[in-house]
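For this section, I looked closely at the sequence of one protein beside the C-alpha cells encoding its backbone, which the following lines show:
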Amino acid sequence: MSYDFLALAQPGVQKLSPYVPGKPVEELARELDLDPQSIVKLASNENPLGPSPKALDAIRAQLDELTRYPDGNGFALKQKLAQRYGVGIEQVTLGNGSNDILELVARAYLAPSLNAVFSEHAFAVYPIATQAVGAEARAVAAKQWGHDLNAMQAAIDANTRVVFIANPNNPTGTWFSAAALEQFLAAVPEHVLVVLDEAYIEYADDGELPDGLAFLNSHSNLLVSRTFSKAYGLAALRVGYAICSAQIADVLNRVRQPFNVNSLAQAAACAALDDHEYLARSRASNAAGMQQLQAGFKELGLEWIPSKGNFIAVDFGRDAAPINQVLLRDGVIVRPVAVYGMPTFLRVSIGTGAENERFLEVLRKALGR
C-alpha cells in the first residue's frame, strides 16, 4: 500500500483546492468536438487586441539568446519602471506575473500562528497563498460586493501580518476611492503589510481610481502590485511587479526564485511600456465593450455589478451553472464564480465587438429570449 502523502502535507495545504483557471479553448474543443477557431473565450480577463507590435518586435530580437539565462535582477525593466513611476530601482521587485508577488509576500511574512486579512469575493490566490504557508486566512464579509474597509481594519489583530486589498477587485470589478484608501492606510497598524493589488488599474480613466503609488511615501507598510497580463496584453509571458519600500523589496528578493522572469518577458514588458498608443487602444476597446455588454444585459433584463476592470459580473438571479453549460456547448467560454460565493453570477471578460456580440447572441438563446 502506498503511503498517504496528502497526510504528510502541511495542514493548510491539505485543505486547499487547486486554483482553477478559465477553461482553455483547446480543452473545450476536445471535450465537445468543436472547431477551435469557432470558440470565443471571455473567461480569463485577457486583452482581446493581442500583444503590442512593439512587444512582438522585442521578443523576436531576443530569440537568438535563448541559450542564455535571463538577467536575474531584471535591471532594464526595473530601471524603466523606476523611471516611469519616479521611484528608486531598489524599490522594484519583479514577479512571474503579479501572482508571484502575492506568493513572495506570503512566504516572507506569513507563518503558522499569523494571519492575513482580505475581502470576501476577492482573488482566490489570497487565501491559497496564505494557507499554503500555514497561516490563517481571514475573509471579511463584503459590502455591496466590494471591500468593507472598515470591517477589514477591525479584523486586524496582533497576529495579522498582511492585508490584501484590490482596486478594482476581481471578480466583482468593485472599487474604492482615494479618501477611503487614505483612511484605511492611516488606521492599519505599522506592523501590517498592506498589499494593494492594482492588476486592472490601467483600465481606469485618469483620476477615476486612486493611484496606489502616490501613497508610498507616506505609508512605509504599503506594497503596490501590478501586472503586464491585462491592459498590456502579455498574459502568456507572466510578468508582474511590486513597488514598495526598499526594505520590503529586499525581503522579497531573499525568497524570490532566481531568474523568475524570463528574457522574452522582460524585453516585451520594456517595449510594451513605451507603446502608449497600444495602451490607449486597449482602454478605448475596453470602454466600448463594457458599454456593449451593459446594453445587452439591460435589454435582457439582467442585473450586473458596475466594474472598473476589463470584465463584468452579470447576475441571473438563479444558479448560473446551467446557463454556463449552454454557453459552452455553443462555443462561448465565460467564468463561473460560484467558488467566489457568487453562484448566480457569471464573470464575462470584455472582448472585441464581434466576440461580445457572439456572447450576447448565445446568451439570448440560453435564456430563451
Notes: The chain has a mean pLDDT of 93. The radius of gyration is 21 Å.
